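One thing: mind reviewing this one?
=====
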Amino acid sequence: MEIQVDPEICISCGTCIDICPEVYDWDDSGKAHSQVDDVPSNLESCAREGLESCPVDAIKEA
């Protein structure tokens, strides 16, 4: 599973980071980003929950 966060859409609410800090983190511009290239299988449900909780749909599964 691969996750991409669109920094143009991200509103920096932090919900994804709160839900799954092992996958999501802040980048240097204060936007969320995926800190892993390929989400480990044991974190897929956590990553998917973060994706689904994004209020502006900035996170997509690639």
In short: Helices lie at 15-19, 44-53. The mean pLDDT is 97. The chain has one domain: 3-61. Residues 44-53 form the longest helix (10 residues).
